[in-house]
Fold each of these.
Amino acid sequence: MMNQEERCNTTLGLRTGTETGTRTGTETGTRGVGIKKEKQSKKNKIGFWLDLSLQLHPKIIEANDHDHKNDYEKEDHDSSSFKTVDDDDEYTIMIKETISNTNVCNNNNNHGSRKKLKLTTEQTTLLEASFNIRTTLNTGQKQELAKKLNLFPRQIEVWFQNRRARTKLKQIEQECEMLKKCCETLNDENRRLRKELQKVRYCSLKFDHRQAPQPSVPFYIRYPIATTMHITSDKIGNSSEED
DNA sequence: GATTGTTTCGGGTTTACGTCA
DNA sequence: TATGACGTAAACCCGAAACAA
């Protein structure tokens, strides 16, 4: 429940736009100061908006897609920056009832939940084909595709955004896998070289025993690293691989 | 050149929905 | 059959950048 102070925290706005399902351009943008502020403080705030939306050209909706289309139309409005009421508490309901017969609408989500559209196979196929040609669309291409698929341009936009994100995620996963394998290979190589080093140490000890008194510094340390590596890989390394 | 409004995008999150144990 | 966990994808939110007026 809201307290008295919150109840008084109301906003009044004017909304323009169309019923075509596209955004009105006020949803995003850091410099759209006035409207942006309203959006950021939408929670726990009652907002009244005068809706001047126009239905320019009612879309022809296929029978089996009817519910989803209507839902999306509602959804698209709800997703705009004017959704200022989130929960149907007593006060909100009262406000709704009060203003229900006027042109003022508060753009509340009527059912408290959004419907999720599942794209058909044909739609997905065409979208994928378009994505393979180009990963971003300009306005014209977006509208053309939306017309073809009987979707809203906003849906096309969202699909492409999500698709780009999925592509990037897959790419990152692949790169991660590659680095893992690379790391494993390097670890294997490291283990192999350590083993070879042990063998060299062992050989040098035997050699010193036969040829000379035990030196104070181990045999392998007396050679520069590069030389040691050379001996290791070319001479002894081969024999170790035969093991 | 600075300011403002608009559009688009990336990154992250939320949520509806399907699947499976 | 019911249900909860989980994965997926559509939709959403926000900040940043680019661009035009």
Amino acid sequence: MADFLMKKSLPPLNWFRAFEASARRLSFTAAAEELGMTQSAVSQQIRALETRLGVGLFVRQARGLALTDDGRKLLPKVEGAIETLSAATAQFGIETQGPHLTIASSVSMIDWVLSPALRAYMAQNPDLSLRLVSTIWPDDFTATQADLQIFFGTQKQAGPNARPLMPSHLIPVKSPDLSGPLSELPLIESVGTSDGWAGWANVFKEPIPRPSVHVDTYGAALGLAKNGVGVALVSAVLAGPELKSGTLVQADPRQIPAKEGYFLNLQSDAPTAKACAAWILSITAQGPG
Amino acid sequence: MADFLMKKSLPPLNWFRAFEASARRLSFTAAAEELGMTQSAVSQQIRALETRLGVGLFVRQARGLALTDDGRKLLPKVEGAIETLSAATAQFGIETQGPHLTIASSVSMIDWVLSPALRAYMAQNPDLSLRLVSTIWPDDFTATQADLQIFFGTQKQAGPNARPLMPSHLIPVKSPDLSGPLSELPLIESVGTSDGWAGWANVFKEPIPRPSVHVDTYGAALGLAKNGVGVALVSAVLAGPELKSGTLVQADPRQIPAKEGYFLNLQSDAPTAKACAAWILSITAQGPG
DNA sequence: CTCAGACATAAGTAATACTAATGGCTGACT
DNA sequence: AGTCAGCCATTAGTATTACTTATGTCTGAG
């Protein structure tokens, strides 16, 4: 009840902005220019705000405006609120000038695939303004305003338009410093995925050690593997760059299929977005060979 | 260009309010109830805010919501801004705490019907905070934020949901100090209405004096009649309390219908508003008898 | 007296904001 | 394992709002 009235008690933000700009410029006409609307719109908004508040905010003069006492009372609070909201939105806002691109991606993909390759890509596109947003799957990606989305899941979860980043099977990787057969090495399990070492044992019908380290992402597993902690069973696309550079090697030449993988979803028609999507598809398809 | 973008950089205040309420309640459904709108509306507003800011603000769960890091970052600023704007408007507006009520009414109805009876009503409702806003018809009542509206006009103007305050026919009233038949007394005409003495002459087919005093409201006419200036032809509902107290008497037992009258429009579901509407309907229906 | 500048208003329309209806998902309960 | 309540998401439709255009009015400068 009281809450219902509360709902009606705040006028539209644009009225406040019209008021603040008019108070600062002492002119509806100048405020209108600044706000990108007509003088008539500003006049109506101020009138509406005055009606809503039940007080006069300006004295209209032949040459512009003067604030009333009520207007002077209102102005500091409105200025403060507008400044707060502007700061609040600015902390998220993307640069809107020049070619720009937002990629929302799983942390692992950013750390292990995108970051290593981005230096070259940015060098090729010096004017591009790029924003990488890391997201935790199974986040709701549509909530993130991004030109490109890369996330981990099933094709069904990703949607029919999402393209898998290949190769998507799982391979065991280890540091080149680790010697010995798979059966004698510590295994690292990524628990946030559907597939893992149990699947490996199932496919090849051979005993393997029980995994001794559990992490929640392939990326974390890769990091541990790189540090020689053990053998990680991870998506081949994720391991690609490390295999290519030799910092990781395949611990066993075999692989198993995976129900889940990384998917790219292009959500923008902008040329910069399409170019980047093509680039990502190309660098992942190259793999370690 | 930059000014144009500036205009677009602040989302509607309602989106922020939807965000704040949802963050506090961790439920779109509960936030919707609080804000007096549907869950669907809140869902869309949050989605729109997330798209505008380019970040996810909530993680949707089966049983409600969780704030994301970005959501937690945004919340204090939004809370601060909303509080500032609420304080800014509250310093002019009605108190929003405790039972409160705003009635927008024609001046005449306030002076001649509501004011005489309000003392008793307020005594019965000591916690009620009441605000009477006098308006000049044919004002745009929708611009006035009021729980109840009472204004003068036609049913068509008032809208289908508006209830007429009865009795709405016109009666001639005078001070008990004035003696003599109608045809020998000065007549007071209310020029701001459709009906008047011409209608009286037309209905009863008898000559009457040409009105010698013209005013623009029934209330003003009543005031002059009470002061013995002459006979006023006014809405019976307006004259009711004065007839009841004997400060005015009917100058002629006859009456004529009126095309216009006073209408009550209830615009709030709050119990305080409904109770007051019922009270107004009851005190006007009692009439002078 | 004329005119430029600025605010106010009416009318019209594009855009927005909301509702109603319904779908999908998840966890609790039986 | 099946059912159902609770909650979010989406679509389609429509009422309402927000804005523009056009024009009127007023005032002070020239």
Amino acid sequence: MRHDSRLSRMLHVLIHMDRHDGSITSDNIAKMLNTNPVVVRRTMAGLRNAGYVRSDKGHGGGWILARPLEEISLLDVHQALGRPEMFAIGIAIDHPDCLVEQSVNAALTDAFDAAEQMLLSRFAEVTLSDIARDFDLRFRNLTERPARTV
Amino acid sequence: MRHDSRLSRMLHVLIHMDRHDGSITSDNIAKMLNTNPVVVRRTMAGLRNAGYVRSDKGHGGGWILARPLEEISLLDVHQALGRPEMFAIGIAIDHPDCLVEQSVNAALTDAFDAAEQMLLSRFAEVTLSDIARDFDLRFRNLTERPARTV
DNA sequence: AGTCATGTAACTTATTCTATTACGTATCAT
DNA sequence: ATGATACGTAATAGAATAAGTTACATGACT
């Protein structure tokens, strides 16, 4: 199955933006993520619409954080990306009238709904500043052998 | 993202097999699931290897339950299918050396691992006989307006 | 005016689940 | 024995979709 990696990538970008003075262009972000600037704009558009980043055109333009990391949770980013489907396992709906299928799907839906609720509430509890703090920790633990921060 | 519907389909089939005298051919199962007999054999192969069903060749052959529904949990079926990936959201690994990426991925992995654990333990608690019981309930509730059981 | 940067539609590519084809093997009925 | 039935499986094709690319428009700064 193909994974949607936008959440991971956007978190990565947002934290880099926080550690960066001024704005960053889509081109630079694209290089950072090994992807294409158009993909960056497309994905960041959701974050902009939700008010977490701002984009400016022209000289000196690019992307800049519109809110502090403390005020952005994983859930916020997930929702800004359009609440993409979380599960790779789905229910079959070939025979919606079949009571066996209904029972099977009810059991599966119950389980997946509960897991999704758990994930979402966990996402709500973690802010980007939490992740940034974890980064600082890792950074301090590796001062003798610096790692890339791209 | 594309959903893996094998779990849902196999549960559906197993319960029908329990309510069916004798064996069922891959052709019949395929019609039941709106799919192809080769797909059925391929998917059921996992269940056979795990000992939940048996397959017989030749006249009168086909598939038959090898164990009672009480002894098959959702987790058993999931594992028999090869423990397919559960989440449609994944982490980016473009820069494994980047500490920011590491922190982001650690946060996401924590959350997804916890959700997966929860799902698996829930799967372990539900047996196919539980689902069959739910089916019986739905069936009784609809005697005045029979529904398809295909 | 010219350059830089985003906005977005349209199209292509890559990946992967599903479906199909083709052929092999085992079993049963006659 | 022999033909029909049914599974086993490799190889290939199809379909859905996330990601990548091209092309062009719009806005902003110098």
